[in-house]
Amino acid sequence: MKSSENILGKYSYLEPYSSTCKHQGPLGTIYDIPCIKERRREVEVFIKYYYPETSKEEEEMIHSCARKAGEEAWPTISGAIASGMSLIPGAIVIANEILRRDFKECLNKSNVSTKIKEESTIGIYRRRLGQ
């Protein structure tokens, strides 16, 4: 099986973590105390799809269907990003349903083989960038 991926978008958030902070005592002594700090995390949202070996024309149709389906699914995720981090996981589930439905509909309307229509799969994934 061949695979390909397309980036839909990115978002970032602040992640709290435990650390130590410098504190000056009443006599000027500096010592470390536990504290919470934040770091920015960046996340990339992308679609990945798998398909069997095929002709160049059919492969172009698969890429086209994946791109179109991703364009239909992305607004659900971008709306959740704008509204708050807690909504993103649910939005990805809904966007995945839109993506898979539209991808299959596009393939079914095209002239690709039945094997490609049955064996091609697609999904939305997240990957954290950097450390």
Provide structural commentary.
It is a single chain. A hairpin with a 5-residue loop joins strand 1 (2-24) and strand 2. 43% of the residues lie in helices and 41% in strands. The relative contact order is 0.22. With 131 residues, it is α+β, with helices and mostly antiparallel strands. The two termini are 31 Å apart.
Comma- or semicolon-separated keywords:
3 strands, 131 residues, single chain, 3 helices, three-stranded antiparallel β-sheet, alpha+beta
Give the total of beta strands: 3
Estimate the helix proportion, in percent.
40-55%
Coarse morphology: elongated
> Strand order across the biggest sheet?
1-2-3
What does the secondary structure layout of this molecule look like, with pairings?
Blueprint lengths: L1 E23 L5 E22 L4 H28 L4 H22 L4 H6 L1 E9 L2
Antiparallel strand pairs: 1-2, 2-3
Helix pairs in contact: 1-2
